[in-house]
Structures are given as structure tokens and as C-alpha cells.
Amino acid sequence: MIILIKIQNLITDKKYMYLRKIILVFLYFIFFHIGFFKLLSQPLPNYENSEEIDQEIRKYISKLKENDTDEQFINHIFGPPLKLKEQDLKTKDQENTVQFQNISDKELNEKLTEFYNQSHRDVYVVKEGDTLFSIAKKFKMNINDIYQLNPDLKDRPLYIGDKITVFKTSSTENSNDWEEKSEVIFQQKKYRVKKGDSLYSIAKRFNTSVEHLIQLNKLNPKNSIQPNQEILIENYKIVKSFKVRKIFIHPVEGYISSGYGYRINPFISSIKHFHKGIDIAANMGTPIKAARDGLVIFSGRLEGYGNCIFIRHQDGYITVYGHNKVNKVKVGDIVYQGQVIAEVGRTGYATGPHLHFEVRKLDQPIDPNFALKMEEKIQLSFKTIALK
Predict the structure, then answer these.
(1) What mean pLDDT comes out for the span 255-271?
(2) CA distances from 254 to 167, 304, 355 (A)
């Protein structure tokens, strides 16, 4: 009771006015300059829960032990592995700091509209016999679409050779057909003349003719060769022909809103963490496709990544698809490259609809941008052509 009376006097009595001011200033300093900012600097929970995927994959790998029956099953279904070299895992992007684009729904829709407009457009060269109607029909468009993409055509006729903008046909999108490529390598074999050498002795040494050496080096037969003179022995090109195709395809149409590497946490700006995949922003419900043939090893819900799918592939690769609106496959399903496995959503902790996409060599994350450039290559022919 006595204590309460003293506290009341401290609050109301004028002679304690200066003491009250000192106490208030002290409390203000403690709360705003120490306690408040200290509170902000505390490592709050990571709303992305970036270790969730690591834990699930390690749990999966621990079950495999020495007998990897999943690998045997995948190879039985899809054929022998490609035996990709370890150099395929190297990337220079692991130490990069990437920016997270935390934007409004309106800005997201504008960016997606711009992306789809650009990525779905192609250029068509007008040929003899073409009309606006025939071109629109060819590319599954209407006349207004043609005019919208090519406003100048409203006021002038169509000419042969015109380059007009059209929408890409579905057959040209998301295809991963074999593509033939060739590689040309030029090579030369040279010899430095030594004392006592002659064109005859050099030709004999390299199993060729004097006439060949004279013609190849544009020599005058009347002039003798000199020591240290460089003689061209062979001049040829190697032509290699291959068929190639992408090992991984893009799982969804959209733009990369956050890359692979260190970044600022999208929810807590004071925290930086390593982003082990890429975020591909897309409209809600956009189909998500399997990046490669494989076996579904996880299809479920995680706290941070929401609806998630893991697919095991040949050569020890695993792809991860997170924040899905809905998963369309279950554990044990065989999926084929390009098959729809989910829809883009914002489940778990997500600032907007997007796909969190990872590529791993078992539990080791690699840059998905690098993986999406990897190619399977089969040699078709090898020719060596002598040049004169």
C-alpha cells in the first residue's frame, strides 16, 4: 500500500516532474533505440522454409542405401542412362546475389501479358498466293489479330516478301524434337625443315608426294627449301554431324521473377539466404510440365513450398516443383517429358502465383538455367576432307 502511494506521488507530484521526464526519456531510448530495432534484427522464422526440400530429399536418399531400385526401374523404363560427366554440374552462378521481384498483382499481370505477347510471336515472310485470310487461318488467328500485330496492313496491300508478325503455332512451342547440327574443325599438320632435308625426304617421311607438298605450299620447284622453313604437310577439315535435343525442357511458360543464388528473403528484407532454384512467375492455373522423363518420388504438401512434386530422373537428377495450385500426379507415377503434372499456384509461403523450380544431382542443387541448356548429343557421321 505504501509503495502504491509513493508511485502515485511520483506520477502526480510537481516536484517529481523532472524525474518523470528523465524516466520517460530513458524508456523511450530503451524501447525505440535498443529494444525495437533489436527485435527487428532477430532472425525471425524463414517463411520460405528452404530446408524442407533438403530434408525430404535426404530422407529419400537415405532409404536407397546401396541398392538404388528406383534407378534400376527408371533405366528399365527409359533405357540406359546418358552417363553425363561431372563437369555438367559446374556453374559460375552459385555465388551470385539475385533480386526478388516483389510486385503487385496488377504489375504481375502486366509483366505476364508482355511476356506472353513477346514469347508467342513469330515472323512470317509473305509468299506468292498468300492473303491475310490464308495467313490468319495458317496460324489459327483472325483478321483482327493480324491487324493488331501489324497496324500498317490496315492502310496498304500485302506484298510478297513482307515480314509480318504472327502468333506462334502450338506445334512450335515446348517441342523437344531431335535437331541435326554439324561441327566443322580445320586442322593442319606442319613440319619445320632441318639441315639436310629435301622435299623428297620430307615427302617420304610423311608418306606423301613431292607434288602434293609443292601444290599445298605453293612452292617454286626451282627454289630449294631452307632450314627452319615451315612446310605444310596436311591441310584438312573434319565435319562432324550430330543430332541433339535438350535434356531438360522449361516446365512452365512465364518469366523468371527470382534467380538462382543468394537473395534477400521476400518476406524479411533483413535476411539473406541461398535460393536453390528459380521462381517462374505465371498466371494461376498455368500447366506445369515434367522437365524430363522420370519417376514421381514425392507428391504432397510442405509448409513453406505448399503443394510440391519431386521427380527422379536418369543420371541421378531430381527436379522439384513447388507452390503448385494442385498436384496431378502421385508417388510411383511414371511421367514423360512435357506431361502436365501440376498447375501454377501460390500455396505455402508465396508472394504471388509462380513455380519454384529446382534441379539437383541427388541432394546437390545446381543452377536450373544451366541444366536447361544441357543437350543430349548423338554422332551421326564423321568425315575428314583434304583441302588443297
Answers:
(1) 72
(2) 17, 21, 9
